[in-house]
Amino acid sequence: MKPFLWILLFSLRSPDGTRAHGVSFTKHPANQTVSQGNAARLGCAVQGLTEPDILWMKDGEKLYSTDQMFITLGEQHWETYHSVKSVQQQDAGQYWCEVEFQDLTFSSERAWITVEGVPHFVQESQDVSTFPGVPFNLTCAAVGPPEPVEVLWWLGGLQQGEPSPSPSVLQVQGVNGSVKFYCEAKNNRGISVSRTGTVHIKVLPAAPLRLQVKMADNNVTLSWKPGFSGYSELSVCNVQLARRSGRSNLDLPQQEVQVPPHLQVLWGLRSHWNYSARVSCVNEVGASPFCPWLHFQTPESVPSAAPRNLTLELSEQQLSLSWAGLQEEQLQGRLLAYKLQWTLGGEPQEPLLFKENWAQLSGGGRFFNASFQVSACTSVGCGPWGPPVLVLPASVRVQSQRSHLGAGLLLGLLLAAVAGLLLAAVAHRREKETQFGSAFRPPGAESSVSFTAARSFNRNCAGLQDSTLDSLGINEDLKNKLQDVLIPERLLTLGHMLGKGEFGSVREAFLKKEDSSVLKVAVKVLKSDITSSGDIEQCLKEAAYMKDFHHPNVIQLIGVSLHRRPVQRLPIPMVVLPFMKHGDLHTFLLLSRLGEHPFDLSQVSLLRFMLDISRGMEYLSSRSIIHRDLAARNCMLNENMVVCVADFGLSKKIYSGDYYRQGSVSKLPVKWIALESLADNVYTTQSDVWAFGVTMWEVLTRGQTPYPGVENSEIYEYLIKGERLKRPAGCREDIYEVMHSCWSPVPKCRPSFQHLAAQLEALCRGPAPPEEALLYVNLEGEGEGAAAPGPEDGGAGPMDGGAGPEDGWSVPWQRRAEDEEKDWLMAGPEVALAIGGDYRYIIGPCGAPEEEEQGGGATHASPLRDEDDDLVIDV
């Protein structure tokens, strides 16, 4: 007889076509009573099948074992055993074996393993928190076999009474200080001792810890970690807020916050203003001390008011302008410029920018009869416009003011007379409204119709209208849900391409918001063929679902826009996502190793990347989302070096149908796909765990391709032999164990993302070499994208402790030549877009172009056309 080791599960039919009624068990497991620590062995034999797959069951659950032995007793006669080397209490239960044949399941008789030994506890008293002198109860329960079991209590090192039958309740009349307790359980096999618990006396809580503020758009969120609770649950926390003006503080009303969660959104704060906040938390005993004050400044906003008192003085030589500056609370930010727009003969002219609240423009005669209005601009955008003022000589201006009054009276009388005539005419006509306009029947014998069109159309108009929900024919319920998801295309300004893949391209873009501010975003333009409105409707449904995701390690969808092209009947969906400053994780890892300026990444930094991914996937799996394409290339790095899981919303579209099976099979990312997914095209959260293990390997090798030397077509055979990715060089053994656990051939044996996040968090906290500061080349200077001076330039190099990530830094491959061009405002392209207009010529206070004043010529970039030749972008 020859033993066989079974690793993979499969089902085979016997070559002679054995019928189901020919299957029978010739040996069944038998009841066993075993002392704790001894071995136990159950046997089972089946006849009538060729190479059957015999499974052992315990209490209704399958037992998975890699060392299960099968022994041939004859042709179509097999025997197998289940062994336990050292029986413990958790091994007690009901066992049987099963075999499947032709969609039928056959089961053996059932047997019990009963474990005898010292008592084991089924209920142990937990720690107790109480007030001094208040009575309370402690409970302890233990069972055999053998029975009976008696319980003896110990409190503060002293025996409490005599042994009593299990379960036992100890009534304590009260204590005045912290005290330890435990119980002993005894039967005729020995004594077991429970865990040691503690009775705590409730006290005041400690002050909250790690108070911090997060600002996104116009929302300010205050968060903190609770301090020592005082052995009593925290119910509320009190937030004190003060507005700082100069050296004095103005205390604002105290806010009471129900906890958890330990955070509070602060409303009604002024933009670009200094505030202070502190927090105290309350339990049953009372309130904790306040934590130290946290000082912060709110984000900038556009000015809330327009500059007033615009005055103009015109002479033959020049036009002098002046206006009142804004108060600090009206400015709501740092003033960048005053924007002056003007019209001449009804035609808008090129806007002008000024640093001061006055200006002198040469050639006064050319501004006669021009109209001027002014607005203040911050880095976010420009505020409201002041009233327009007409340029007239001083003498004419006085006379015009007098004549305007008389002209106004005459105009009012004329309008009243016209209105009376119209009303009289309408009274003699019977009007009927139609969907095309208004139809009138004049008096007379013959009926005639005069028609006035309600709308006019131009068939030669080349402009394309924005795609709306009404134009797509979507039902009203879905339309209401999608109001906050669909973004009009006119609000997006597409920039240069950030990347291109099988399913579309990703472009940098700017999104104009309702408050006229501008947000830098990334837009994914899908190339998928849209054949029906149903496809667009399904895309919008998924977008509405994804927009509700809120997690720091999951990229949040901003919205979806529909890009309409003249040659296509239906629009192309564009997915609008937050702009990730440092790109995808795979490129970041490659550049750290192979870029022009390589940089070091410590193992603690790599662990943090993996922990971020696991937390993001834990959140997605809790929302029943299966990613299907988890890899380093689909993880993004934001400006704070936090990893966000991306591309989870489109994964179902990618794998539905036979897209990957048509054409080249290499399009399928087989090196990240789980064994069962390759075999049966089945995708679960457990298959995402497999891909996470491969992503861990990518991170630790800093962007290497998995399974080097193994072709895509060979991956399945490579894995089915039990081969796995090897431990990367320099990888700690405990990290590799976590990674390797993700590649179990049995999906249920793989850890959950919650368990993976806990393991990686423990590894991050565990003993490790001290973290070195992440140092990068091309550190930002005065302007965006400016390179930091190196040692040869007299600056601080990487070994000199240069600026770290918190000082603001850019990654080498994202530095562009156009980023180094600066205008006189020292503002990046986002600011220029926020202010708006064409600023090839920046006007100084005295009317001359700013570049000419500095001795340089005016420069501007010519319009660029992308490689798809479908959009023209002015830079």
Describe this structure in words.
The protein has 875 residues and is an alpha+beta fold. The protein folds into 6 domains: 4-116, Immunoglobulin-like; 120-201, Immunoglobulins (Immunoglobulin-like, Sandwich); 209-297, Immunoglobulins (Immunoglobulin-like), CATH 2.60.40; 305-403 and 844-858, Immunoglobulin-like, CATH 2.60.40.10; 482-578, Phosphorylase Kinase, domain 1; 585-765, Transferase(Phosphotransferase) domain 1 (Transferase(Phosphotransferase), domain 1, Orthogonal Bundle). The protein is built from 14 helices and 48 strands. The strands form 12 sheets. Strands 3, 5, 6, 9, 10 and 11 form a 6-stranded mixed sheet that branches. Strands 13, 15, 16, 18, 19 and 20 form a 6-stranded mixed sheet that branches. Strands 1-7-8-4-2 form a 5-stranded antiparallel sheet, with no helix packed on it. It starts with a strand and ends with a strand.
Summarize the structure in short.
With 875 residues, the protein is α+β, with helices and mostly antiparallel strands. Helices cover 18% and strands 30% of the residues.
